[in-house]
């Protein structure tokens, strides 16, 4: 009886320590986000005088002023367009390629797949100079099309790997049944493979949306015109040479964070399933 009470008390103590640690980590991660949101509702005069998370006055006009700043609203629309087109293209291309690598047998299949996997080992900054010269030669530099093509190529390797790994686990019997019902290869991909791949689909969408939405350096290399700049570059307009408008900057950062938070909330129920997708069809 004493041993049972001892082990039960030990288990409760360990669980309490774990929960305290996790709560501390959560607070550490959430506090900067909360400070950013609260700071976006203050004025320039009191943003550093009042460091509390409950300001005396709420200045929601900061968001309207931020959106009215020259180029910020246009860059917000640009980022939505770049992210939507890039993510949609990656999902279609990567799922088709992953299905082909998993289910079709063709000459050079293994070599081509490992070429895509090798691209995962190349740091993105290492490709900046070749991309600059290639886009310049194709007359795609300083164009939305050139930027979108680059973002698609960046996300393909990992996405193809995730889709191919998942499709490998789908039982062949499901494909045979679909073929008996008259489905072609494309029909099997659309009606069988993609519906089953929702967990991986969610992971691919979130990863690529984060990648495109937060991209900064590549945009500076490709674009010269401010009208094509994405949102992350446009945040610089709130930072002057001598003065930074911190309330508008915090409002701009909050606006920039909202779409990705919304995407994650919509996809969160599939995230864990996607991470453990290898065990779905064991």
Explain this structure to me?
The protein has 282 residues and is mostly helical. The protein has one domain: Orthogonal Bundle (MetI-like fold). It has helices at residues 2-39, 61-68, 72-103, 109-119, 128-137, 144-168, 172-180, 185-196, 198-213, 217-222, 231-234, 246-275. α3 runs parallel beside α6 (144-168), α3 packs antiparallel against α9 and α7 (172-180) crosses α8. The protein is flat and about 70 Å long. Mean pLDDT is 87; it is low at 277-282.
The total count of strands amounts to 0
Mean pLDDT: 87
Count of domain modules? 1
Q: Profile the largest sheet.
A: none
Query: Which word captures the global form?
Result: flat
Please identify the top-level CATH class.
Answer: Mainly Alpha
Bin the helical content. over 70%
Query: What would you report as the Rg, rounded to the nearest angstrom?
Result: 24 Å
**Treating each run of at least 4 consecutive H or I residues as one helix, how many helices?**
12
Uncertain regions: pLDDT < 50 for 5+ in a row? 277-282
Structural classification: mainly alpha
CATH topology: MetI-like fold
**Ends: how far apart?**
41 Å
Order of helices and strands: HHHHHHHHHHHH
Please give the CATH architecture: Orthogonal Bundle
Strand percentage: under 5%
In CATH, what is the homologous superfamily? MetI-like
